[in-house]
Specification:
about 200 residues, 4-stranded antiparallel β-sheet, 8 strands, alpha+beta
Length: about 200
């Protein structure tokens, strides 16, 4: 395992892999990085447990709104890239969202949510007004079939140039589009039916 991989600091190496300047990492180095990532998740879990114990000790856990989420996932060459931001596959855009607190019944939901839904959702739980025309929705107001959008301006085109990527997900379908590639009329952007194509991890 190379030094940067052993240290877990791979930004420079990731850039070289992502831009095609060096071969992909071998399986043993990917396994090592995944081990480090799993260790980071375990550490985070332990700190969350400490936080909840602390809220209990202060006597405020039952009156506290706890939110667990992330701004992005990580890529471990599932689609040839490392870190995040170069594409819109699920390993980077599908993240956890847990909301617990007073008046919230435990349940697992399958409807789509976006980062822009957090402000209106939390504002409503806290009794705060939200500005008119605010994007996003209160996730507890219903199970809307609203599509979920994602974008990155750090996408990498097949020729190595930067490109913008946009995606929309709805009703088990996901469309990823890059305006920079401008497909010929006979060629459609990739649309995947997620539940029929799980191996691609859209």
């Amino acid at each position: 395992v190379r030094g940067p991989v052993a240290d877990g600091w791979i930004r420079q190496l990731a850039n070289q892999v992502n831009w095609g300047r060096t071969p992909p990492l071998p399986a043993d180095e990917i396994a090592y990085l995944l081990g480090l990532y799993d260790g980071e998740i375990r550490e985070w879990d332990a700190e969350l447990a400490r936080l909840l114990v602390g809220l209990d000790a202060l006597g405020v856990r039952d009156s506290t709104l706890v939110v667990v989420t992330a701004d992005h996932g990580e890529e471990f060459q599932e689609h040839g890239r490392l870190t995040h931001g170069s594409h819109l596959y699920d390993e980077t855009v599908r993240v956890p969202l847990v909301i617990a607190g007073p008046g919230i019944q435990p349940e697992r939901r399958a409807d789509l949510a976006q980062g822009i839904d957090l402000f209106p959702t939390l504002a409503m739980r806290l009794g705060l007004a939200t500005p008119a025309g605010l994007p996003g929705r209160d996730l507890f107001a219903g199970r809307d079939a609203t599509p979920a959008f994602a974008e990155t301006v750090r996408g990498i085109a097949p020729d190595g140039s930067r490109m913008e990527l946009l995606s929309v997900r709805r009703d088990g379908w996901k469309l990823v589009r890059s305006p920079a590639l401008r497909p010929a009329p006979a060629r459609s952007p990739p649309v995947r039916m997620i539940n029929r194509d799980p191996g691609r991890r859209c």
